[in-house]
Amino acid sequence: MTTDCNGRTVRQCITKGIFVNAAKLHHTGIGVYKTVKDGHELHIHPTSVLYREVPPQWVVFNEVVKTNKEYMQDITVIEPEWLHTLTSHYYQFGTNREISEKRAKIC
């Protein structure tokens, strides 16, 4: 039996379950995230254990709380390649040209 010290398997399961709530750390500001789905701006909630840590590059979240900003809660750190391997039916990856070529083959 192998040991999963960093909870990789659990984090992959969470990613697969709430993949539509994926967000990437945005380059424009510290702690600013943009959702993958529509580019919505979010922040890590101040009560999160991740709030005082170095911000992870990629996360999924369970809910959003709106006060003076919109904050993610129930956050899980993920690897971006999981979005492709676990949920390839939802996300399209590649350059605009590659994606256009893929769409042309389907039609």
From TrEMBL:
Residues in DEAD-box helicase OB fold domain copies: 10-90
Protein name: DHX35
Organism name: Bugula neritina (Brown bryozoan)
